[in-house]
Amino acid sequence: MPVRGGEAAVPAGVPRQAGRTAGRVRALVPAGPLDLGLVLGPLRRGPGDPTFRATPDGSVWRACLTPAGPGTLRVSAHGGQVRGEAWGPGADWLLEQLPDLLGASDDPSLFAPRHRIVALARHRRPGLRLTRSGLVLESLIPSILEQKVTTDEAYRAWRLLVRKFGEPAPGPAPGRMYVMPAPRTWALIPSWEWHRAGVDDKRASTILRAVRVAARLEQTTRMDPGAARARLEVVPGVGPWTSAETVQRSHGAPDEVTVGDLHLPGIVGWALAGDRDADDSVMLSLLEPYAGQRHRAARLILLSGRVPPRRAPRMPRGDIGRL
Question: Quick one: where's region Disordered (predicted)?
Answer without folding.
Answer: 1-22
